[in-house]
Amino acid sequence: MAKIIKDVTIIENTLIATDVYRMVLDDLQIAQTADVGRFINLYPKNASTLLPRPISISEISDTTITIVYHVVGCGTAEFSKLKAGDAIRISSALGHGYTIADAKTHILIGGGIGVPPLVELAKRITSNKIAILGYQDEPILVDKFQEAGATVYVATETGSVGFKGNVIDLITSEGILGDYYYACGPKPMLKAVKMHCKDINKPVQLSLEERMGCGYGACVGCVSKINNELLKICVDGPVFLGNEVNF
Ligand code: FES
User: Three-class SS of residue 179?
Assistant: First the structure.
């Protein structure tokens, strides 16, 4: 399907944690392009911020998509000021997302702003699922994973909530084991997840979306070595099999 760019209506744009917002967008056509692990581009109105902002899709309904974004610069700061009823220019869903494997126990590992894309994945997995969610200090969306029927473990770097440490330390400490793994988060976490899955000989899908700039193939800022080839994460990914990613 060709990429669609259009103005859509915001149903909700709420602060859910420090500098983190949840935005719900109402558009049947865009919702029909959405899939788990894909992303959309958001276009700032301010002409000085030329590039769109790629943001992962967190949840999908028949007529809406939900994104969760971190305010990190002028583009996302502009989005954070929008209210329900305002319009925002977005693209249809882009990239290749997660494939749900045929497995008995699925392990979903999210770090920071890499947690939101795993919500829809948790909702769609119908067998056993365990979510391992890591944060610096302030957990988000834990209730969404619980509502999706996942067993949830939380780790924070500061120890403010749950286990003190990172997600791999938590997995090791609790002896958590599954048949198939999915991860989204910062690169050091993805690298550690890849090594862990290699050690226990389990397959993993990694979402490399942290590395994106423009989100539509123009800036080459997202080029990464995949299977010893230089690929664009935004077009060829963001989700790849762990054994294909050359960190
Ligand atoms: Fe710009 Fe991929 S994010 S080319």
Answer: coil
pTM: 0.95
Q: How far apart are CA 219 and CA 200, in angstroms?
A: 37
Q: Which CATH number fits domain 105-207: 3.30.300.30, 3.30.470.20, 3.40.50.80, 3.40.50.1000?
A: 3.40.50.80
Q: Using a 6 Å CB cutoff, which residues line ligand 1? A: 212-215, 217-222, 232-234
Q: Coil, helix or strand for 128?
A: strand
Considering the domain 5-91, what is its CATH architecture? Answer: Beta Barrel (2.40)
Say how many Å lie between the CA of residue 162 and the centre of ligand 1. 36
At 55-66, the pLDDT tens digits run: 999 999 999 999
Cα of 223 to ligand 1 centre, how many Å? 7
For residue 232, the ligand 1 atom closest to its alpha carbon is: 2
**pLDDT one-digit tens code per residue, 210-229:** 667 788 888 888 998 898 89
